[in-house]
Each structure stands twice: as structure tokens, then as C-alpha cells.
Design brief:
alpha+beta, 12-stranded mixed beta sheet, globular
Length: 221
């Protein structure tokens, strides 16, 4: 379950890389896994909110009706200074090695490093949170296909790896991504130009642990 949460967080965190025409704002996504197991389905819907300005991006994720909450804070310039916190059933942890973990975990999951082709269909459109979006089919090297709906009203992502040739021409507001746990669907439900005052801050009362220590605490969740 923790891996699913990390996959979602890292995917959104890198896809929506804050290099937008809008100087700051917050996008809230609803996340579902329609083909997942009954146990996953019983957890209900999860929400992910991405806050961004010209220097920083933060991603908040709530799962299991708020019983599990995760937050990442990522500077645009120096990803190694990233921070991550997790709250699980009243326990609060700050992951100290998140910069290294993010770069290791995200390969092939949360960026276009392993994409070999992007095909756009501007005739297939839908409106999402007030933005007109069109379809993008991303074919990965393993043959799997991810379906995005992107808008030109918000500037495209900055690639996590500048050497990667492929990048989206727009900002994704709906993403259907194939993962090891099943299809993951993230659809924007709200956009705001305002950012909460504490969006880029770590709260109080968090115990600092490494990712390995956290996973041991969780018993391999």
C-alpha cells in the first residue's frame, strides 16, 4: 500500500513540475484504482493536491479517509533537498532520505524516461476544472499505454531528466497509468490560484526516520 502511495505521489510530483504559465496555484486530483483488489477498493477514493509557485512544489495525499496522509516538498532547483512526511493512524514521521529515495523509486514509474512515443488526438477533448483538454496516448518501452488528457492553458512539464527527448506539450489534468497494482486513474477536481500558507512547511511533532526504518515500522505495508 505504501508503494502505491509513493507511486502516485512521485508520478504527480514529477509530471506536474510547476513550470507553468500560472505563477502559482493548487490542483486537486481524485485518485482511484478501478481494477485493483477488493481490499484496495474498500479503501475508497484518495485525493492528491499539488501546490506550486516559481520556486517550490508540494504534494499532499490523503488515503483511507484521512487515516494515511503523505506530503512531499520539492524545490524546483535542488531535488536533493526534498522533504517527505507521513501520518499513519496518529503516528507522524518525516522521511530523511527522501531525495535519494525519490530518484530511485521514480525511474520508469513517474516520468517519461521509459516512454518511446506520444500520440496526440486533439479531436478527443473534454473539459476538466474549467480547462479544455485533449487526449495524449503515451506508449512505454514495455508496450504498455498510458492515457492522459492535457491542457495547453498551463505550460508543459519540465522533464525530470533533461536528456529525455519526449515530453508532453501540455499539463495533464487526467492520467490513466498502468502500475504493478493495476490501473491508476487521477482526475483533477479543483483548481485554485491561491496556496495555503502552510503548503511548503513541515508541521510539528514528526519523528525523523529513514525510508527503511519507516517501512519496518509499518511492517512492510
Amino acid at each position: 500500500m505504501t508503494q502505491i502511495a509513493l507511486t502516485a505521489l512521485l508520478f504527480v510530483g514529477i509530471t506536474a513540475n510547476a513550470q507553468t504559465q500560472l505563477k502559482k496555484g493548487s490542483v486537486t486530483y481524485n485518485m482511484t484504482m478501478p481494477s485493483a483488489s477488493e481490499e484496495m477498493a474498500a479503501m475508497g477514493e484518495s485525493t492528491i493536491t499539488v501546490h506550486f509557485d516559481e520556486t517550490m512544489q508540494a504534494t499532499d495525499m490523503s488515503m483511507m479517509g484521512g487515516m494515511m496522509m503523505m506530503k512531499t516538498i520539492v524545490p524546483n532547483e535542488n531535488k536533493k533537498d526534498s522533504k517527505m512526511t507521513m501520518e499513519v493512524m496518529g503516528m507522524k514521521y518525516e522521511i530523511t532520505d527522501v531525495g535519494e529515495e525519490a530518484s530511485k523509486t521514480s525511474k520508469g514509474l513517474s516520468n517519461l524516461d521509459d516512454a518511446k512515443e506520444i500520440v496526440y488526438d486533439k479531436k478527443d477533448t473534454k473539459e476538466i476544472v474549467g480547462f479544455k483538454c485533449y487526449k495524449a496516448i503515451i506508449t512505454m518501452n514495455d508496450g504498455s499505454k498510458n492515457t492522459f488528457y492535457v491542457t495547453d492553458a498551463i505550460a508543459p512539464q519540465a522533464p525530470s531528466n533533461p536528456k529525455v527527448a519526449l515530453k508532453l506539450t501540455g499539463y495533464p489534468l487526467e492520467m490513466k497509468v498502468k502500475t504493478a497494482q493495476g490501473d491508476m486513474v487521477m482526475t483533477a477536481t479543483k483548481f485554485s490560484k491561491e496556496i495555503p500558507a502552510d503548503a511548503f512547511k513541515v508541521g510539528e511533532g514528526f519523528t525523523k526516520v529513514t525510508m527503511e526504518e519507516f517501512q519496518k515500522q509499518m511492517g512492510g505495508m
